[in-house]
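User: Could you check the structure of this?
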Amino acid sequence: MKGHVENKSKCAEHCSTYSLSDPTSKCFSDKCDHDHDQSCDDCSTTGVLRIQFMLDAVSSVRKAIPADIQEEITHDLQISTLNLSTWKAHCIRTVHQEQARRDVLLQLKSHQCLIVMDWAMKFLPIKHRETQADFYGKKGIGWHISSVITTSQILGESPATPTDKFDVQTFVHILQLGTQGWFSVAHILTDLLNQLSVRTTVKEVFLKSDNAGCYHCAPLLSFIQHLNSCSSIKVLQYNFSEAQSGKDICDAKTAHCKMHMIRYSGEGHDIVTPQDMRAALHANGGVKGVLASVVSVDRGQSTREKNGVQNSQHQSNE
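Assistant: Sure, the predicted structure tokens are below.
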């Protein structure tokens, strides 16, 4: 299914512009400049038709099947129909949002970067030697991964090309105090932009994350708008990826960091605090392309007022 989806296609099942357009909203719809006069046997409603055929078969032998069994089969088939349609919609959104990431990378200039953000799975404290009693009841340590992608081209202001190489610098923020909410993300984003302003010549950034509530929320978007008015680095665009896609670079860096910390623990060290995690990530030369820092976020300073995004445009990748 994913291999057949295109931005413009004469097959309605393959055309993401047609499939993702909302007919009730002009802001989230677009018109195709072509006819949908083709069909695909593999991606069409063949699965739905087969389920409908089974429903008809159950109805034809209704007398031979107990009522409770018949009701259970009908329910399962109806749920399967809904799940099949939901899966197809997920595939189309995934391909469409991946194209948005590619468009950003192809148009990336020397003073711009793409930042992919994600919360890693909480790190469970480990000791070089610990009893079985110490193994249970651990409290995980939250840490946030931000992978900054820049182009290594020497072409001035011209956009990147598919043959250009990209550099990746990963910033790890380990939570000393705070929760995995939008307020922590706002502070992490502020620190990240400050570090970029000192370490690089980046002036504009593109953000990308999943649809978690700490990212896809009005308070954070409102904060980013405020950040643009007082920061030297401007956020040009924020793209949200579909579940289980779009964050592979963060997952890869998370795996590298975990393996590095496990090796560090195997050398006779305990990793039980955020400071220990930072020391482990920087030990033995550190993880290539990774900078770690410990942050404390006072949740009590967050505003409880209703936030709104002013002068914003309706945009969506779906």
